[in-house]
Amino acid sequence: MSISPSLDFKIGQMLLAGFRGFDLQDNPIVDDLRERHIGGVVLFDYDVPSQKYERNIQSPQQLGALTQALQKTASARLLISIDQEGGKVARLKERYGFPPSVSQQELGTLNDIAKTRQAAATTARTLADHGINLNLAPSVDLNVNPANPIIGKVERSFSADSDIVTNHARVVIDAHHRAGVLTTIKHFPGHGSSKDDSHKGFVDVTQTWSRAELEPFAKIIAAGQADAVMTAHVFNGNLDPTFPATLSKNIITGILRDAWRYDGVVISDDMQMKAIADHYGLETALELALNAGIDMIALANNLTEYDAGLAARAFGIIQRLVQNGKVSVERIDQSYQRITRLKARLN
């Protein structure tokens, strides 16, 4: 007879946490893995608070040892994630001994599916070979505003044309699946038209966004290729007059779940980004995000300051939210089931 996992175990599985360290020796993340049962980690090469390239990635050999140690330490199969879009958004860089990568914009401009497939296959193999099983990519934002500081300007969008974005993203996803790596389409419901960066503050796309920005998400989900969807912290008054997308039940449950019948994992963008953190306390943000339909809470722990106890704090907050009846046990169960199904695809 199988024993049902505890509520605490299920809550822990909903956390995707960033941490410091090239290895796990005397590393506080070990307690998060063993005692709080966190479901995933996110790796970086650059540590923003210290402004040094000293975070999780030194070399291929070191990275392989780290991911192996993480899996051995975790109390269940761990999602080990990274932002490896290519070009300027690549944590595995040539300087550390990894293959070169090209940006999504470069691939979309070439618009050669064979070249995109080849580039994606190299990326996917590199991730798989070094124990990374979830790429927080591809970005399927449309390049509506090329001067957009967080999308267009850093070459993260394949194109302003939704068909080009969809076609190339599907090839990227397929290449990852062939290597046994899961992917994440982002940033739902579209960050490509923004004039501002949600890392730095409130971003309102109400006047610049169009429904075409939903098309790549809708088509990839309809094709059954979406492993996970990452939300944007943008405020979009067309879709919700009150909350940014990550905290919006109208957007996450209303569009993804109800209208599109998507029952896969939804991951928040980093909850410490200022678009959220400057306007909501962590407890309020977690309550809204979970009730909106978010399954995994991303806590990158890599912005203005580092907090070794961040995952523990979020874990405790979610426990209290459930105890106080502000988040239902059923809501936790839904997310746990989705996360479990996603992880089962890694075996």
Give the low-confidence spans.
none
How many structural domains are formed by the residues? 1
DSSP helical segment count: 12
At the fold tier of CATH, the topology name is TIM Barrel
Q: Tell me the name of the CATH class.
A: Alpha Beta
Radius of gyration: 19 Å
| Gap between N and C termini | 22 Å
What global shape is seen?
A: globular
What descriptive keywords fit this protein?
single chain, 10% strand, 347 residues, alpha/beta, two-stranded antiparallel ribbon, globular
Q: Would you kindly provide a written description of the structure presented here, covering whatever features stand out?
A:
It is a single chain. Strands 9-8-7-6-3-2-1-10 form an 8-stranded parallel sheet. It has a two-stranded antiparallel ribbon with strand order 4-5. It has 12 helices and 10 strands. The chain has a single domain, classed as TIM Barrel (Alpha-Beta Barrel). It is α/β, with parallel strands linked by helices. It has helices at 7-13, 29-34, 60-73, 104-110, 113-129, 162-178, 215-222, 249-259, 274-277, 282-292, 310-323, 329-344; strands spanning 15-18, 40-43, 79-82, 84-86, 89-90, 134-135, 182-188, 228-231, 265-267, 297-299. It starts with 6 loop residues before the first helix and ends with a helix. Helices cover 38% and strands 10% of the residues. Helix 6 (162-178) crosses helix 7 and helix 10 crosses helix 11 (310-323).
Question: Layout of SSEs?
Answer:
Elements: H1 7-13, E1 15-18, H2 29-34, E2 40-43, H3 60-73, E3 79-82, E4 84-86, E5 89-90, H4 104-110, H5 113-129, E6 134-135, H6 162-178, E7 182-188, H7 215-222, E8 228-231, H8 249-259, E9 265-267, H9 274-277, H10 282-292, E10 297-299, H11 310-323, H12 329-344
Parallel strand pairs: 1-2, 1-10, 2-3, 3-6, 6-7, 7-8, 8-9
Antiparallel strand pairs: 4-5
Helix pairs in contact: 1-12, 5-6, 6-7, 8-10, 10-11
